[in-house]
Amino acid sequence: MPQTTAPEVWRLTAAETAAEIRAGRLSCAEATDAALARMEAVNPGLNAVVESLAEEARARARALDAAQAEGAPTGPLHGVPVTIKVNVDQTGHATTNGVAAYRDVIAPDDAPVVTNLLRAGAVPIGRTNTPEFSFRADTDNPLYGRTQNPWGAHISPGGSSGGAGAAVMAGIGALAHGNDIGGSLRFPAAANGAVTVKPGLGRVPAFNPSQKAERGMLAQAMSVQGLLARTATDLALAMPALIAADPRDPFHVPLPYAGDRLEPPLRVAFTKDCFGFPLHPEVSAALDAAAHALSAAGYEVEEVAPPAMPEAARVGYRALMGETKALLGEEFARHGSPAFQALFEEYFRQYPPYEGAELLDAMARRSAFAREWSRFQDRYPLALTPFLSRPFFAPDRDLEGEEGMIEALGSALWSFAMNFMGLPAGNVPARLADLPQGPQPIGVQIVGRRWREDLVVEAMTAIEAQIGPMAPHLWARMD
Q1: I need a labelling partner for 309 at 20 to 30 A (CA). Which of 38, 51, 131, 172 fits?
Q2: Where would I find the Amidase domain in this sequence (predicted)?
Q3: CA atoms within 13 A on the CB side of 28
Q4: The CATH number of the domain where 94 resides is what?
Q5: Count of CB atoms within 10 A of residue 90's CB?
Q6: Is the dihedral of CA 423, 424, 430, 431 positive or negative?
Q7: 361 in a structural domain
Q8: Is 299 part of a structural domain of the chain?
Q9: β-pairing, 425-435 with 438-448?
């Protein structure tokens, strides 16, 4: 491979960056400088990164180069520039969660996901934006302002990891940390054309050393840490490091990333069912393209209706709203902006929170839904489903009353259900739609058997091999 020139370095994937550095054709310092230069060039128009870590990043890159020169072993992400979402702890930095009142909550230590990225050799270059309390499918807040989608102002960047999705697709770092309690990795992936896998319950250790109290049981069961990338190959490279154990998470699942090899062909349950929401022709075409790609790669794709849907999604979302209202309602009222409080009032109107015995019953029903899927996935280890029924919505769509709320969130039943049941679920772009308002990627969802993120990523890699990544199309537009 020829020497990589500086202007091209930010375009490299995480796998390419790590390979170039291991081969001695690129230094960690050069990779970091290229990512920081890209951030300086495009972030003013995006507001994806809300805190630059340039000084720390350059110092870390120099230290990694020195260690490599002395023969020290290198991790799988040695020298790879990454971003960290502002709702997890990073030593010495504010864990604001997009809330002005938390701007002085300084992390005393790194969260496990940050620790694992550092151990793998990654170089954090910036911290990315999130909506208030990380509780919207869009990314805007009074503390940092709005994040723009690099595809244009006609598309929301998604949320709550909207800063992460916009950053990685714009070339600000090869990987972006994010998290997901109802879709907060997959919404930004779908919006920006990134690739992600929402890990299953317990796969990536989680804890914020700055926290004052433990999270609610449903938050513990539904929220997971993960990554957004430009290629599925990069997820395959990074996920084994991300799932490394940490004693601060007592419920971490200590399984290897790759499970037992399943006899081919792997069966894929394929559905276009959107449960009464009209399926947009572009989403239908993306699903067909993904199904064709999987079939061409040797998967056995069969149209079949997965179980427990949409009940699992609706019960799960109303249960999460019930726990959120009980445990965070006062905090939202005290520190949330008027717009945020109005949004949650609309949430509660559209999806009445379960309370008392109803909430306990809903939490108990989670096992029944998960059991149905466990039986189903004994035959179909993977499922190809819609993510949203239509192309991604415009900024602030969720603030536009009942109609906007239903389009932005109410239709995301395939998203919520996977969090409630704790199943791994990925999002991969399968089509670039040419719409009147402008071009935008269309993502599809791949659901995997419990604790088999590797199967999800392999399937997304097969789709990507046929359809190609979205980043080159985006960069041609940005240039």
Answers
A1: 131
A2: 30-456
A3: 28
A4: 3.90.1300.10
A5: 26
A6: positive
A7: yes
A8: yes
A9: antiparallel
